[in-house]
Amino acid sequence: MALFTCGRLGSKSVLATIGRLPASVSTAQYAQAAVPSVTFKKFEEPRVEHHDVKNTRLNRPLSPHMTIYSFPLPAMLSITHRASGIILTTYASAMGIGALCLPNDISYYMTIVESLNLSAATIFAAKALIASPLGYHLANGIRHLYWDTAKGLSIKEVYATGYAMLAASVVITLLLASL
What we know:
Layout: H1 2-6, E1 8-9, E2 12-13, H2 14-19, H3 23-26, H4 51-57, H5 73-101, H6 106-114, H7 120-147, H8 155-177
Antiparallel strand pairs: 1-2
């Protein structure tokens, strides 16, 4: 009743407008197309398939393996910087444990090495091998301190400082080995 009395739109009532709607709207055939038909299928266990077999079946390319992937220079320098730090820690630990556990002082062991009558080139090579982690770690540490000033961080400068650091580490190693 309220719809009839209050629902006048213009000169026609709402009920009169509803009465003129087509028959298809009144039977709700318009909504039949919007409702999808749902079908249920029986649950199947997923196939257990190895990762490589599935990738082959789907024609997926293989990822590059570590043996064929070449690391960029900054990555290699970072890895070797960590390795040189580990080697230096091993040196310090071995020297500390040796000083505590070995019965003689360092002069006794130096005379043993001198009694081996090694050539000067062999002694220089051994000293360079022992000094190379220190020279490398020192030069790369200076490079990292330079980076801490927010300078030299573009790709071009990272490569340039990497090559300069390698040259400096060789010079430091040779200086330490010649002592």
